[in-house]
Amino acid sequence: MTKHITDCTILNNGVTMPWLGIGTYKAKGKEVQQAVETALEVGYRSIDTASVYGNEEEVGQAIASSGVARNELFVTTKLWNDDQGFDSTLRAFEASQKALGLNVIDLYLIHWPGRDQYKETWRAFERLYSEGSVRAIGVSNFQVHHLRDLIDEGGTVPAVNQVELHPGLIQQELQDFCGEQGIQLEAWSPIMKGKLNQDSTLKGLAQKYGKTPAQIILRWDIQNQIVTIPKSVTPERIRENADIFDFELTPDELRQIDALDADKRTGPHPDQLFWD
């Protein structure tokens, strides 16, 4: 049983990554800096950002002022679509390094697969990894066929695949494939932007355990071996999202939540998001 906010999974290259982190999507300026500072005070040790969020600098400032030792933190950022390609990836990574104020980034992800550049981009990721600029490399929003493309090249198997995943979108085939390949699955939008808060199954379990529906979902993630990064800028919600380590759902309850799967997305389907 995962019992503490600093408990970790072990990635396929031996690097440890906390099961719970704080997401920073659409959070800007002082708001995101204060959110990260609050999260670190509460005990979070994993922070997820991306170049397109426009907040890497503030995240870096919060880390620098926190007093938390660098080796206790796990920092993820992502390469945006417009920067895909070998040379452009290396330049974009340097910009993220500078903005975050970090020499080494713990996890670097390709944000979306796009149409046809991700293999070239992955070669740049492998260089960054071999140079020691990143501790682990992975992808985001990759479907099974995208992952097979990379794996068939015979290079580095992604350490992480961060995707939209919640009880309304379980993606069982993707879960099974990542499990077989040793790729750690990570959930963005884990509570489906609050759209599941009124579900009767989740409300019933919340009442039983003295928790909120969101806390039930986050616990479901972790018990399914899924890293989760709920986003919030509200101190009370940041604390609430971390208060999921004092109870455990039963196997039957996990199956009840699985049954809520409706293949519903809050974001675009990766096979439909392209750019020029």
Secondary-structure-based class equals alpha/beta
Termini Cα gap = 46 Å
The CATH architecture designation is Alpha-Beta Barrel
Q: In total, how many beta strands?
A: 10
CATH topology: TIM Barrel
Proportion of beta-strand residues: 15-25%
Number of helices: 10
Instruction: State the shape.
Output: globular
| Unreliable segments of 5+ consecutive residues | none
Q: Specify the CATH homologous superfamily.
A: NADP-dependent oxidoreductase domain
- Kindly give the count of domains: 1
Share of helix among residues?
25-40%
Q: What is the CATH first-level class name? A: Alpha Beta
**Biggest sheet record:** 8 strands, parallel
Describe this structure in words.
This protein has 276 residues and is of the alpha/beta class. It has one domain (8-263): TIM Barrel, CATH 3.20.20. It is 40% helix and 15% strand. The protein has ten helices and ten strands. It has helices spanning 29-42, 56-66, 86-100, 118-131, 144-152, 172-181, 200-209, 213-223, 235-242, 251-258; strands at 8-10, 16-18, 22-23, 46-48, 74-79, 105-110, 134-140, 160-164, 184-188, 227-228. It has an eight-stranded parallel sheet. Strand 1 (8-10) and strand 2 form a beta hairpin. The chain starts with 7 loop residues before the first strand and ends in an 18-residue tail after the last helix. The mean pLDDT is 96. It comes from Paenibacillus silvae.
